[in-house]
Amino acid sequence: MQANTTPLVGIVMGSDSDFKIMKKAALQLDEFGIPYEMLVASAHRSPEKALKFSAEAAEKGMRVIIAGAGAAAHLPGVLAAKTTLPVIGVPINATALNGVDALYAIVQMPSGIPVATVGIDGAKNAAILAAEMLALADDSLQQKLVQYKEDMAAGVAQKDAKLQD
Ligand code: RP5
What's the structural domain count of the chain? Predict the structure, then answer.
């Protein structure tokens, strides 16, 4: 995390066992130079901590929340209940149901409380989506995203060139 900068993104996970996936969001934000705060807070095991974080996030300067959880994954929805910041949910593959349980829990929110849901274990995409939201008001970040897409396209072209050899 970048020192002396206000975190713009909150990365919350339901358990430290989610870190191996959620660190991919942190690494992607690092690549874009976006400051973030990372914490463990559970909708079930520490609901007060989760609600307090969410209720205070906007006034602390955060602009987007990324929340990852597995099993009956209520964390993103619970956070969304206490903030008007956009919440991006990451369903984690943590049980015998391989993440489908978490996907259904996160994506199927009741009307009025949206959570933008990425794919199972899609923490990297969550970070890119968060960057795209922040870039709406940040031209230099917008340029980084344009470059990111150009680099991706160049990578595909390179693979295609190898195939044609
Ligand atoms: C969820 O239960 C967490 O988000 C995690 O994905 C899953 C298992 O948690 P642990 O039992 O590993 O702490 O709340």
Answer: 1
Expressed as residue numbers, the domain containing 63 is 9-139
The reply to whether ligand 1 has any atom less than 6 angstroms from the CB of 94 is yes
Distance of CA 126 to the CA centre of its chain: 4
Distance 15 CA to ligand 1 centre (A): 5
ipTM above 0.85, yes or no: yes
Q: Say how far apart CA 78 and CA 10 lie, in whole Å.
A: 14
104: exposed, middle or buried (C-beta count within 10 Å: 0-12, 13-18, 19+)?
Answer: middle
Tell me: the pLDDT tens digits for 68-117? 999 999 999 999 999 999 999 999 999 999 999 999 999 999 999 999 99
Q: What is the pTM of this model?
A: 0.96
For a mutational test of ligand 1's pocket, the pick from 18, 23, 66, 98, i.e. the residue with the most ligand atoms closer than 8 A to its C-beta, is 18
Residue 1: pLDDT band (50, 70, 90) is very low
Q: Which residue has the higher pLDDT, 22 or 4?
A: 22
Distance (angstroms) between ligand 1 centre and the Cα of 54 equals 19
